Amino acid sequence: MDQRPSPVFLRTTSSPVLPPPVFAGGPVKWVRENMLAGPGSALFTVAGLLFILWVTPGLVRYLLIDAVWSSPDGAACRAPGAGACWSFIARKLDFFLYASYPREMVWRVNLCMAMGGVLAVWLLWPGAARKGLGALLFFIAYPVASLLLLHGSDALGLPKAPTDLWGGMFLSMIVATVGIVFSLPGGVLLALGRRSRLPVVRFFATLFIEFVRGVPFITVLFMANTMLPLFVPANWSPDRLVRPLVGVTLFASAYMAEIVRAGLQAIPKGQSEGAMALGLSHWGMMRLIILPQALTVVIPGIVGIFIGLFKDTTLVAVVGIPDFLRTVETARLDPAWAGPTISATGYIFAGLFYWVFCFGMSRYSLMMERRLSAGRKR
Amino acid sequence: MSERGREAVRPQVPLLHDPRFRGLLTQAVTAVVVLSLLWVAVDNAATNMRARGIPTNFDFWNRVAGFDINQTLIPYSAVSTYGQAFQVGLLNTLLVAGVGIVFATLLGFTLGVMRLSSNWAARSFATVYVETLRNVPLLLQLLFWYNAILSPLPAPRASLAMPSVTLTWPDAASFGLALGAGALAIFATRFARGQTPGSAGALLAPIASALGWIVALIALPFGAAAFWGEPGGGVLHWGGPAGLYLNNRGLLLPNPSFGPGSGWVLAALALAVAASVLYTLQARRRQAATGAQSPVGLVSLALLIGLPLIAFMATGAPVTLDYPVLRGFNFQGGLRVNPEFVALVLGLVLYTASFIAEEVRAGVQSVAKGQSEAAHALGLRASPTLRLVVLPQAMRVILPPLTSQYLNLTKNSSLAVFIGYPELVQVFMGTVLNQTGAAVQVIAVTMAVYLTISLATSGLMALYARRTAWAER
Question: Is the ipTM of this complex over 0.95?
Fold first, then answer.
């Protein structure tokens, strides 16, 4: 037999694995694609870096290094070159939280906020147990309990705290919570009314929704404040805090109705036909089949309404309700603290407060959106 | 047969369970409840208003108002009527809304496109901007601009002036050198990768690249130092005859004053606009018919600048700019914009732009990726792809929410009541309501104004949506 090796070369081992080119992966690739994709992009990156270099040192110096962290009054904050006056916030924090609410009753506010916080986490936690019970507590028991606790009741031995003493962050929270608690059922009813096959019901619902959505929130507040007392008999005149709360509820309900309507439209007709074929009544069908699906679809939209509502609570100050922002306005004009940095410090603190809540809510709605669309993803 | 069949199948339903009867009953009950509530409210209101001596008619409309307004577009004084005060407020609202919408659109579209940019700096700036500004209440932002930024500004004598750029030789040179060397380095690096090994290019390009990087790195600190240099010593000088000043009394701008003969200049401008529109239409027809493109941009620019310029020269320069000049403690001449107006427009524009940016982003993302890929495959660069392929399709998705943002901006201008800019709500719902006490009439008129604007806009929008609806398959 011919023992000469075959002229055919057959490689039996695989060649060593080469590292990828430096430019084709890792941080270098990221920088090339995201910072130096072309001359224009490079110029933009340089401008961006210069901007950061320009802004950051001043900001850090103003907010942290040159800031006044503790001082009994505004003297230290008036010194030339002083930055943000955080001691102003620290000294006024009590006022920002509770405004003029009687100090010895503040525990009632704290208890109320804690209950609200627990219930909110219960309802918002995905997959928490017994959400039905949580919703019942939040939408029915909690408002009643809060009213008794905050306003006081002789039967329970709690001294009264009239509403003109209420104010600060807790009042902002109350306005937002009242809007949320009442606008959801109100919005659902209005949305069902607008989609009803009965022309009279549809007409009234549409009229209300379009009217409220067409005017600024401030005018609704003005109307609630000056016209509500005129619409009821003179001896029934509503409390000065109740009037703007009615305005907030009407306003939020109209916007909520449009979101819920979008959810109702997204439910295929087969669902209601199936429910009717099973012999469910109209309200049974709505409660068990249509609304659970419709509301789930529009959770991001509902959270969007809540964010807007929370920001809009600042406007109740126009009818003389001392919400959180109004307390900041009052505090920054305190002559004991007068100084060039006080206004900016107050507004930065208030901005942080609103931003944390609104940004948190928007992240939550994004997370829910992702969870909810998991089943629909292909 | 069939008649009797239906009779037989039709079940005997109690009247209360007949859907048709129940429908009628529900509607009747709704109508009765709503109308009686309304009637009770109106009846109570009439009683209460009579008891408190509140006027129930519009007699106040023609009475003398007796208060002053610090910004009026039409002649108005303390002896004018409440009706004229209403007009002043309405015009001021429309002015703020108009100016705000223009700037918010420009900023919003820029930010929306930036959010989708492949450049990290542009993307992150836009994201931080949007997430910060839309999560903070507009009222807080307005108060911040008005009370924390504009009010503490220096008095007129120490006004902030628009920087006029003057370049000084060594600083500017190092700045330019850093930029130029950086650009050279980037191009050389890219060029080096395309060379075959052993060629002259492969040898020279890395050297050029390295040199470029070194020069850029050395020059950059000098350039940066020049950029932040002492006033007068750096690249940028503050002050100079730009005619733009900002102080605690507001914003001062050069005021164009129209002398005799300036009508010709305006006529020439109108003619130029008409001519460029006609030319654009003609160019579009020509491109549709033959595929040949015309230099629309260049020709329009030449027309828009050239024609008014010729008229301006021919009539002996009738339009002059009246610059604000500091005399004593205050400025004379020029156009002064109230700080309230500046704060309101600034707040509305920055806030609304963050929402418009999100609408633009959603619209651009709704255009299928294949569209821009196909445009790239045809050889279009990034900018024409965006301008000619993506944005026109995205506009159909963007426009409806964009109009609702415009309406929001208009409605939000009512927040001016907090900083004292005299628009409709501040003048009419504030001062007029307080003076006349005619709450129901004043609130009804104010709401009617906003409702008219809203409903007219959504009506137009519905028309547009019907005209441009997707052709469903």
Answer: no
